[in-house]
């Protein structure tokens, strides 16, 4: 079952001559991890950033096709390209959260970082807020490290801790889909391992799409892998199949390090 279906999806940046994404068809499966891999400039980030319309923070991009997101309440798929109202974009980004390459904590306390999204989502009661912040920090494997300094600035945390805080912030509002854009490329190996373990565990509660340049990472943590090249989706399959038995020559060349 899919949380999102990308259907005949093409995308052109405002003012660009060529499409950055060409007729992409791809499911994002529920409670699974889907990795997007491919050489630099193939469109991985553009695709990921389309899935919660973050690309549209800059106007006049040209879309074609459909990005169908499952509405949990009605059990129907809805095209997020139909969204027009500012308020609906805010709701979309609560349902489809995003973690960036560089940790992006807000310059405020650890507690307030996680409470921020919850407050926007309408949580007002202090006890409820505290409970939800604690649950999110526990869920992001950060609670033990920060429980005695929740009122301290998030900027004092290490890079790996900041990234887990950003994950806690995203997880707190109970998203349906989390998008990770190279979430460990700025981190050391130990922090990377912690984040990978966390992402693997999060799959139980949220569907995940992750862009990574790290082939070992894709093979370690993802259930499905999509290989992209020059704005096209070349091959999509179970991760094992992509890495052990790719069907397309291009995929094989890429995963064996022959280009990219
Ligand atoms: N804001 C933009 N305006 C115009 N073209 C852009 C913009 N951002 C990216 N592109 C182009 O879109 C294409 C896809 O870029 P994208 O960043 O999605 O690739 P990527 O696979 O994520 O690359 P990388 O692995 O290097 O991050 C590239 O040709 C890039 O030059």
UniProtKB/TrEMBL annotation:
Highest taxon listed in the record's lineage: Bacteria
InterPro entries: AAA+_ATPase, ABC_transporter-like_ATP-bd, ABC_transporter-like_CS, P-loop_NTPase, PstB-like
Gene: pstB
Highest classification ranks of the organism: Bacteria, Pseudomonadati, Campylobacterota, Epsilonproteobacteria, Campylobacterales
Protein name: Phosphate ABC transporter ATP-binding protein
Domain ABC transporter intervals: 4-255
Keyword ATP-binding: yes
Keyword Nucleotide-binding: yes
One GO CC annotation: membrane
């Amino acid at each position: 079952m899919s949380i999102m279906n990308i259907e005949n999806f093409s995308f052109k940046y405002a003012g660009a001559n060529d499409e950055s994404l060409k007729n992409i068809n791809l499911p994002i499966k529920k409670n699974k991890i889907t990795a997007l891999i491919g050489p630099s400039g193939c469109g991985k980030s553009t695709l990921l950033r389309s899935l919660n319309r973050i690309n549209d923070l800059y106007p006049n991009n040209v879309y074609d096709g459909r990005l169908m997101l499952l509405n949990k309440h009605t059990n129907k798929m809805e095209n997020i390209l139909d969204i027009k109202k500012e308020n609906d974009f805010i709701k979309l980004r609560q349902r489809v959260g995003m973690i960036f390459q560089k940790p992006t904590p807000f310059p405020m306390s650890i507690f307030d970082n996680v409470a921020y999204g919850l407050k926007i989502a309408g949580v007002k009661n202090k006890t409820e807020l505290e409970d939800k912040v604690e649950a999110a920090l526990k869920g992001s494997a950060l609670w033990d490290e920060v429980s005695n300094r929740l009122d301290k600035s998030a900027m004092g945390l290490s890079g790996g801790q900041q990234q887990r805080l950003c994950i806690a912030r995203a997880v707190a509002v109970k998203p349906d889909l989390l998008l990770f854009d190279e979430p460990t490329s700025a981190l050391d190996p130990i922090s990377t391992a912690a984040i990978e373990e966390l992402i693997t565990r999060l799959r139980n509660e949220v569907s995940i799409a992750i862009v990574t340049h790290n082939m070992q990472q894709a093979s370690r943590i993802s259930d499905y892998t999509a290989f992209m090249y020059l704005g096209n989706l070349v091959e999509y399959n179970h991760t094992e199949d992509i890495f052990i038995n790719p069907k397309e020559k291009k995929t094989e060349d890429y995963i064996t390090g022959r280009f990219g």
